[in-house]
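Justification of computing resources. Each target in the renewal requires a structure prediction run like the one illustrated here; the chain below, 226 residues long, is used simply to show the kind of job we budget for.
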Amino acid sequence: MRILKRFSKTSTGQKLIGFIFYFITKLISHSIRWEYFEQSKKSKIFDNKHKYIFCCWHNKLFLGPHLLPRNRVINALQSSHSDGMITSLAFQYLGMNVILGSSKKGGMQAFRKMVKCLQLGESIAITPDGPKGPKEKVKEGIIKLAQMTNTPIIPLVWATRKYKIINSWDNFVLPYPFSKGIYSFGKPIYIEKKININKFELERQNLENEIKRLTKILESRLNRTL
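Resulting structure tokens:
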């Protein structure tokens, strides 16, 4: 186990594990019978004329990236920790760019890079409760980013009928292959540039509640189709 742990921290180990992670998630994603629950028109989400800040909970990272549009430049924010590096490599195999940083390391630099990407018309993908939680609690960063760049936030939510929950800080969700699945892009959420502290906190809570609301709708829809 110690040898494997040391290997996973090497560049070669991370590349190998990153590819394996990408390959497994791709196979499972393609095996799932997906249904799209429309909150936003997919045609508008998937055209390349608009920039967005896509977000999903950290515990839904297993399949989240596979559901994002492929015909646009998307920059994913990831932790520079070894685990984050592995998922970063998997994202790159999906054709996404990666911005490394977190609240504890390189956060300000990563934030400036995201602002620049959005100014260039590119999109961002972020886990609003990552990289270490608290679970399903939106942090301020995504609200500030949307506020500064006048870019709408698009929640991405998915659920599958059969899955396993990992005993981790975020209760990471592992979907079973060949399951029934459902996903949705939420309606665009705009943040005004000039708002006070109370309004800012309200916007943060609204995003958090909207992701949870959509999740409940999808889970309920899956249960009704049993």
